[in-house]
Amino acid sequence: MVHKSGGQFSFYQFAFADLHKFWGPLPSFIYSWVNIMYTRPAGAAIIILTFAEYFIRPVSLWSSMTPETESTMKILVGILALCTITFINYTSTKGFIKIQNVFTVCKITACLLVIVGGQYQLYMGNNKNITTGFEGTTLTISTLPMAFYSGLWAFDGWASSIMVIEEIKKPQINILMSIVLAVPLMTAVYVLMNISYLTVLSVPEMISAPAVAVEFGTRALGDFSPIIPLGVAISTFGCALCLQFQATRICFAASREGQMLEVFSYVSTKKLTLAPAVVLQGLLTFVCLLCGDIVTLIEFTIFMEWIFYGMTMVALLMMRRTKRHVKRTFKVPIVIPIFVLFMSVVLFLTPIIAEPKPQFLIALAFILSAFFIYVPFVYQKKRFSAVDHFTKSIQTLMGVMPQEKDNDPDIEMCGEQQCRT
Predict the structure, then answer these.
(1) Cα dihedral: 210, 348, 374, 245 (round 10)
(2) Quick one: a GO cellular component term (predicted)?
């Protein structure tokens, strides 16, 4: 029904923008503001820090690095990975796709190796940790959402394909198939991998291990153990590459709707990439990398993400009434958005009421700050001469131009870009 890139941003625009001159575009602006300025860069930083953890883990096992040295090494490796990711997305969209395909094959191969190793351990009778189940754990109203945050983070990729809908061939078929096939497949893979971990690691060991897959490989795979950190590093690098790619599409969608600086929708005339948006995301991710605390970043990020997932369900339910005339390729059963909306409200309210951590209050303040940017610069459309100078400087430095406005749906945004010359 919505055939524009930008994911939830485009959904909000389609659902709300025409309802009110002031309030209508506000949800999409809040989403773009929060995602462009924090959640997408923070998400990439989380994955890059995980990459760095697995990349240096073999080195730390073979050497005597102090915790301070190891922490510094993680940041430095993360910065190097970020520079590489930014360079790839800056230079070639086709190169990104080829690298992503190779990394996906490597990722699945590493996952299958862990699963096969775990199945062998089960065959040998090593199921003690599995039979104990949740023994020794505690369940409270304050800790349950935290568990959901970490768990749901791993499955957050289900929303990725809608970010690039304009660049997908036959999106009405391929997007649906990607979700229907990928989510059950990855759920099965993750469950089997965790069962494999439990064949050789106890629950306390899994919790305390900085790199669970490395510990599993050391104990279960023998001479094949070095493949595991390499496989996880490749997997996380590819994931971070994809996250930055998605974030630039939100930038593009918001900029062409006048909700971000127009220059961030400009396309490189030579490389046919969203060069300014890529550089912006690289810089913001660098700032998030300096935090270095993966758990804090996950809690802070996923808390805000589920606010927007809930808002997306509201948009869907509203469009069932306000957009009845619009042709739909497929129709989601009404019970699904209602359930997701309920879960998003629970995941939003429970941690605030039960255990209000500072990061949750900061997240809410950050969301509210969007209002003070929206009023003067989006609603009132105030403009400063410095913005024009900045735009011209970026155009000169990066060789970018506005994308030609073309209504032909067969022209891919980054495949056969057309720019004004």
Answers:
(1) 40
(2) membrane
Contacts of 113 (CB under 8 A, 6+ apart): 221, 224, 227, 228, 231
Separation between Cα atoms, residue 290 and residue 300, nearest integer Å: 15
Whole-number Å distance between alpha carbons of 153 and 43: 9
| pLDDT less than 50: residues of the chain | 406-421
The Cα 214–Cα 230 span in angstroms is 9
pLDDT at 32: 93
- pLDDT score recorded for residue 292: 64
Residue type, 96: F
Select from 338, 340, 342 the least CA-distant residue to 320.
Answer: 338
Domain ranges of the chain: 8-401
Cβ-count burial of 167 within 10 angstroms (0-12 exposed, 13-18 middle, 19+ buried)? middle
Pair 289, 78: CB distance under 8 Å = yes
Nearest-angstrom CA–CA distance, 30 and 21: 15
Strand partners, 130: none
- What is the predicted pLDDT for the residue at 60? 67
**CA neighbor of 251 nearest in space, from 240, 241, 262, 238:** 262
- What is the share, in percent, of the chain residues with pLDDT greater than 70? 92
For position 338, what pLDDT does the model report? 94
Residues paired with residue 400 on neighbouring β-strands, in sequence order: 268
Nearest Cα residue to 262 out of 253, 273, 249 = 253
- Write down the pLDDT at residue 413: 42
At 405 the pLDDT is: 58
pTM of the entire structure?
0.84
Q: Are 315 and 16 in contact (CB under 8 A)?
A: yes
221 phi, psi to nearest 5 deg: -110, -5
Amino acid at 157: G
**Residue 310 C-beta-side C-alpha neighbours within 13 Å:** 15
Classify domain 8-401 by CATH architecture: Up-down Bundle (1.20)
Strand partners, 268: 400
